[in-house]
Amino acid sequence: MALKLFALLLCASLPSLAQSQKAFPYEYTQEDLPNGLRLVTVPTDYANIVATYIVVRAGARNEVEEGHTGFAHLFEHLMFRGTPKMTSEQYNQTLNRIGASSNASTSDDWTIYHTTYSKEDLETVVAMEADRFQNLKFAEAEFKTESLAVLGEYNKNSASPFSKMEEVVRDTAYDRHTYKHTAMGFLRDIQAMPQQYEYSLKFFDRYYRPEYTTILVVGDVEAKRVRALVDKYWGAWKRGSYSPDIPVEPAQAGPRTGHVDWPSPTLPLVSIAFKAPAYDDSTRETAALDALANLAFGSTSELYQQLVVKEQRADAIFASAPENRDAGLFEIMARAKKPADLDYVRERILETVQTFRDKPVDGGKLDTVRRRLRYQVALSMDNSDTIAQIVASYLSLKRTPETMNALYEQYAKLTPEDLQQAARKYLTENHRTIVTLTGPAASGPGGAK
Amino acid sequence: MKAALLLLTALSAGAQMRTVELPGKSPLVTFRIVFTSGSADDPTGQEGIAALTAQMLSDSGTKALTYQQLTEAMFPMAAGVSAQVDKEMTTFSGATHVDNLDAYYHLLRDLLLDPGWRAEDFRRVKDDLLNNIKVGLRGNNDEELGKEVLYEAIYAGTSYGHFNGGTVSSLEKLTLDDVKAFYKSRYTQARLILGVAGGYPPAFLAAMKKDFTRLPKEGAAAPKRIATPVATGNRVVIVEKDSRSVAYSIGYPIDVTRAHADYAALLLVSTYMGVHRNSSGVLYDRMREKRGLNYGDYTYIEYFPRGMFLMEPQANLARWSQIFQVWIRPVEPPTAKFALRLALFELDKLRTKGMTSEAFERTREFLGKNVNVLTRTKRAELGYAIDSAFYGTKPYNEFLKAQLGKLTLADVNRVIRKYIRTESLTIAVVTRNGEEFKRQLLSDDASPMTYNSAKPAEILAEDKLVEKWPLKLKAEEIKVKPVSEVFQ
Fold this sequence. Notes:
A: alpha+beta; B: alpha+beta; Cytochrome Bc1 Complex, Chain A, domain 1; 6-stranded mixed β-sheet; 12 strands; globular
């Protein structure tokens, strides 16, 4: 497919972003290999650099067995442990020689392995990645050592009350679905991980398969050459047969609450979370909730202006709508400046939720959100690496970059009534979980007098 | 894309602003407006005023618009202005789509040239800075806390000797009038570097330069350039707080900056030992991969704040003095002493054995190619170009590749002997039970490792040396400090 840029590299005199049609402006190829592996190639005009993102649709959601949380994330670590052809030292040294920037991350629904490097090293990277995805081999002793690095990761996160809040909000909000735990997993499961070598082999065998995987290559490349290399190195990978039975979350019967006593001085936090629908770009619900998060709780919202700017009783408020494969959480989090103001802050948030259920938003304000979302994504796509990063998140949902265009088309169609309907349907008491966190009672913020 | 053009107007005698421009065809326009004034300019007793002034400009209203109106104006453009304050530089950065260039630029200009100076904005911004110390650092981030405590200890008594964000007691005293006076004397044309990159029209920069001539030409004299302190003896600062694990930062001052002849060689050495968040470094391999001690271990020769959130270094943190730093990510308390000994053991191995030819060649290849990855965005390219202007070096990419090309293994091993040491170190530790930890550090007792799996004989034999590695610390060199006193 010929390389062509739709909007991003045009001069100012040409049509503006607001007039352009597609949120993802690049032409790309999307191809399926016979084994079920999908390849998406996005040639860009950014010279010399290539970003390869390998999206495995296995995350915390796939950890369906009791006592085995955190395994998707553990693989993010184990995948660097070598193959019969290439030891982990050789793998690292090769990445080193090619000057690559490389890492991986895990979320509810996916694990993504990414490498950014110079175009002349394309074949090296495609071949090395193919080798470890098909032939990863780690001994039990290495497995045990790596599980300690995961505990180290938990430890470094544990200094932050926000990490603890995330754990408690999920644990309180869900009963059965695997979103009950974070991608790190429950601490007790991380501590027991060293004894789970056999289970780890099973996990790899289930999910590190072509039908779970999409390779995304963005940058100074030709699609035909990428396809030829992927055929050569990934073509023999065998399709698997496992399909997880993700536990269905029963309907929530009433509002829930939780509390965290944080051992050291900190400012109090409140999180108000509502069970929201699974990602859906065939309706306007996902887009409506995202717009609602911006309008009701963003920096221009009445609530933010009241609590953060005028009254200055909170120093942060943020809200996020989920983009998950199953029903995730619409979450509003705020940090009060004084413990005594925490109830006040919580009540103002709940009142705001009620207001958005009662009245449709102003159409002009909805337009500003639409414009913001378009410019936000355009401003992010200023190099091949971040283009890949953005596309990869959509690939994890529906395995195609068209997901992004479909969602933005729904944003374009949103009406004030859509937002009100979404608020009425999902931001209800029966979907709600409130968790608070406070430091030791005797001290104010940071031990101040 | 056509190679970007770098135009740098040299600073002539007197008080001219400098510009760094990278025009291109991108529909995005990126700004970096830098004042060569930072926390080293904070007068004694007014620690944090540079940070408070910068944040007062970036997070408040203008004369014409309240903060609320300004936020509303920025919102549909998905734009904003962020401020970064380091010892020598204050940087205001932001980006816009070219559709919104005029509207965005006018807001940015007004923020910097026509600040609103409202009392309610001042109260909010000052609170944010105080909470950044009391909650952000002391409460929520043991690793960043350790790093900043390390810098404070190494540079004590110099213009670099306080946290960029100030101290609680000094911030509490600062008034809006203090901030206005600081702005007037430091935000001058003589200290200004206007950086802009992307698809702006040809006449844009000239108009921008004209606007900024409204700043005074000159103001307060620049502070005397810092001389790198000479460390004699070890210093350990144990910050005591209720933590699950033990966080370390270790370092000592070096006089190597990008303007120094040994920069590329020392960068190569540091990259070999532990380039940030990369799995190829020696410390990462020996501490995490081989022994599972923690999440990662790295070394640095330039200031690298917010490393736990960033994968790559940020620009516009140029300094006239740096430290060689070892970052040991949190370890479980029972293995904490062993981890410290192992880090020092590895430094000693580097010092006495140097690098092999294979490691030298591989690391040189890494740096020569990775610099393209680091400078892949216009934002980064512009930032690096401004730093090159500050140090008086050629554009970073070209400069580093040229320096690397000239290096030999002998140069690198000479630099190792010159700069790598295991004595006269400063060690910052964040842990619970500070006094008990001090006793452990003072004891010569072995701190043997036990593993949850079989280890190769090579590792076990090395452990026998590491577990008794002499720390050579004296009681008077170790201070235990409750976290509530840090940056107080």
